[in-house]
UniProtKB/TrEMBL annotation, chain B:
Domain (Electron transfer flavoprotein alpha/beta-subunit N-terminal) ranges: 22-213
Organism lineage: Bacteria, Bacillati, Bacillota, Clostridia, Lachnospirales
GO terms assigned for molecular function: electron transfer activity
Name of protein: Electron transfer flavoprotein small subunit
Length: 345, 262
């Protein structure tokens, strides 16, 4: 690798002010990752004494913006045009570019949602700036340099990334990685309607239809998850794990081998190539705890692991490691939970 | 129809070493393979060609050894391949990578459709596709789970947007990042491998590109800097429970009550 020996012209960081959060929404329904990012933005902005901005684009969304005012953002910038009814990469990028040129935020945070994951890179390339994907830790230096930490290589390494000579600095963050702030009863902040010339809203992509997927339950949204691993010997035995999940008001999830065996739908797979989950409680049953698996769940609030192998690496991740046979522990627990329900009923 | 697929060589294993000085990964000596997600993009391209005719080309940016994945693509049925390779491209982040690839694409000709994989298994950002599209000033879509219609001037595709499926029409030329499982990739064929043994893999270096300014490539052209690389943290609150199954399940039941889950 060769460096060009030439002093890079340093940018004037003081010209860039504020931390902006992209408001991810569909038809005005705001994705909760937005609030999590506002929480993080406020924390970062406080360190450098900058304002926090939310930027929202869509059609007929001005009403929904009030909700953002319950999270103490300083300003909500709104682009409300019928052409922006649905995410379309070209007009959305143009609108975002317009916002950046007018407001010059030092940093932009976006949710790593299906929309954020395509809009963010498109915008970053347009602005010739850096974008760090799927950050799990964000901090900020006095000189406004954003410290971005993210996993790569299947969660085997963490990288600390900075964008020292470009503004704005851009980062995406997955849902449930940051903490959402409390909603304030009173509203604060200012709603700023923004204008953009209509010719910038044209698109080579036309959204023809949106089909709601079959009502399925998303493991990402569950507060309680029970994860079946390869310690489960037969497909029928999953019933026992499902029953445990039901009794705890939670959902069934799995490791990759069970998905690959076709026992459980891919949407229930936890891990690097599956879903990232952050439930309040996760119980793993017969899971060894590979890094690819734990990368998708190690932020869970309470982690309980049942495994008969005392050397299983899941015990490095679990808060409570239960060494024993799942085929004895789980049925016992189910029995107790049922009895407990009867007593309280 | 002329289709181009972007493919990347990735380490076969996730256990990688990092140069502590530059923060750049040491790729020498590590077994490599084609990024598994790119196989779906190749298969998608081959099926479109089978239906509509035309050519399928692949492009990869990487060191000389990345020629191996281009040969693999030939063995799957791909017609042409180019490798963008130059020491000056080393250490590129997504912006510099996508810029270099877009420059290389311009050298390869005109394409109606450019396909990328969902993400890679090493850098794992899923950002390269949309950034290439921006450099080429063409529309793009990610999360493509189905090609529903192939028309003369556009495609109708389905996208998996987590909670719903979006159906959209996109004009050529365009770029799509296809999901895993969009179509089952075929295996490389031994016959095709033999047939294409001597087929040329065009090598594109900095001197061949339209923009020859070194500052736009490699580390110099990368706004992001990897400052340090470190192993992930391990949770230090640990409690191990031993005992009979009855004891453990009692204890667990109590704990679940205490945590207000039972
Ligand atoms: C690029 C890449 C991405 C990947 N992504 C994912 C991913 O997203 N999610 C994922 O899960 N994996 C993923 N994997 C696979 C991962 O490496 C592991 O192979 C997988 O997580 C192992 O699943 P497991 O723990 O269920 O099975 P095993 O590793 O086979 O573990 C089974 C465990 O069950 C225990 N056990 C057996 N019988 C009993 C019993 N009666 N009572 C109690 N315990 C018992 C055993 O001691 C063992 O620890 C990925 C791999 C790669 C290379
Ligand atoms: C630990 C670590 C973390 C990193 N984090 C970031 C980061 O957050 N931001 C950043 O800008 N850079 C980052 N990089 C650099 C980044 O990994 C490289 O720039 C890489 O070349 C491209 O990104 P990717 O592997 O994520 O590809 P992805 O964007 O995941 O790849 C998507 C698709 O693009 C195509 N493609 C990707 N690379 C090539 C290629 N070389 N040739 C042909 N087609 C290709 C393939 O079709 C692929 O399926 C990081 C590097 C390391 C080592």
């Amino acid at each position: 690798v060769e460096y060009v020996e030439e002093a890079v012209e340093a940018i004037d960081k003081s010209l860039w002010n504020g931390i902006a959060v992209y408001v991810d929404h569909i038809d005005g329904q705001i994705h909760p990752v937005t609030y999590e990012l506002i929480g993080k933005a406020k924390e970062l902005a406080a360190k450098i004494n900058h304002p926090v901005y939310a930027v929202i684009m869509g059609s007929n969304i001005t009403g929904q913006c009030r909700e953002l005012c319950h999270y103490a953002v300083d300003k909500v910038f709104v682009y409300d045009y019928p052409q922006l009814d649905r995410f379309k990469i070209e007009p959305y990028t143009k609108v975002f570019e317009d916002f950046v040129q007018k407001i010059k935020p030092t940093a932009i945070l976006m949710g790593a949602t299906p929309v954020g994951r395509q809009l963010a890179p498109r915008l970053a390339a347009r602005l010739r700036t850096g974008l760090t994907a799927d950050c799990t830790i964000l901090d900020i230096n006095e000189d406004t340099d954003l410290i971005q930490i993210r996993p790569a290589f299947g969660g085997n390494i963490m990288a600390q990334i900075v964008t020292p000579n470009h503004r704005p600095q851009m980062a995406t963050v997955r849902y449930k990685v940051m903490d959402a702030p409390k909603r304030n009863e009173e509203e604060s902040g200012e709603i700023v309607p923004c204008e953009i010339s209509e010719e910038k809203l044209s698109s080579n992509v036309v959204v023809i239809d949106i089909i709601e997927k079959e009502k399925e339950q998303f493991i990402e949204a569950a507060e309680v998850l029970v994860v079946a691993g390869r310690g489960i010997k037969k497909e029928e035995d999953l019933q026992m794990v499902q029953e445990l999940a039901d009794l705890l008001g939670g959902q069934l999830a799995c490791t990759r081998p069970l998905m690959e065996a076709g026992w459980i739908d891919a949407k229930r797979q936890v891990g690097l190539s599956g879903r990232t989950v952050r439930p309040k409680l996760i119980i793993t049953v017969g899971v060894s705890g590979s890094v690819q698996f734990t990368a998708g769940m190690n932020n869970s609030e309470h982690i309980i692991a049942i495994n008969k192998d005392e050397n299983a690496s899941i015990f490095k991740t679990a808060h409570y490691g239960l060494i024993g046979d799942l085929y004895e522990i789980v049925p016992n627990l189910i029995h107790q939970l049922k009895q407990g329900k009867e007593i309280s009923a | 129809m002329n289709i181009l697929v972007c493919i990347k060589q990735v380490p076969d294993s996730n256990k990688v070493e990092v140069d502590p000085v530059t923060g750049v990964l040491k790729r020498n000596g590590v077994e490599s393979k084609m990024n598994p997600y790119d196989l779906y993009a190749i298969e998608t391209a081959l099926r479109i060609k089978e239906e509509k005719g035309g050519t399928v080309s692949v492009i990869s940016m990487g060191p000389g050894q990345a020629e191996a994945i281009i040969r693999e693509a030939f063995a799957m049925g791909v017609d042409h391949g180019a490798l963008i390779s130059d020491r000056k491209f080393g250490g590129a982040d997504v912006l510099a990578t996508s810029y270099t690839i877009s420059q290389g694409i311009k050298m390869m000709g005109e394409f109606d459709l450019i396909l990328c994989g969902k993400q890679t298994t090493d850098g794992d950002t899923a950002q390269v596709g949309p950034e290439i599209a921006e450099w080429l000033n063409i529309p793009s879509l990610s999360n493509v789970s189905k090609i529903a219609e192939i028309n003369d001037s556009d495609l109708v595709v389905e996208m998996d947007m987590t909670h719903d499926i979006e159906i959209a029409k996109i004009q050529f030329p365009c770029l799509l990042a296809v999901d895993k499982d969009i179509v089952m990739p075929r295996l490389p064929s031994y016959v095709k491998k033999q047939e294409t043994k001597n087929r040329e893999v065009r090598v594109i270096s900095l001197a061949d590109l339209e923009d020859k300014n070194e500052k736009n490539y490699g580390l110099n052209g990368s706004p992001t800097q990897v400052q340090r690389i470190f192993p992930p943290e391990v949770n230090d609150h640990r409690e191990i429970w031993n005992g009979t199954s009855a004891e453990i399940s009692n204890q667990l039941y109590k704990k679940l009550n205490e945590l207000k889950f039972a």
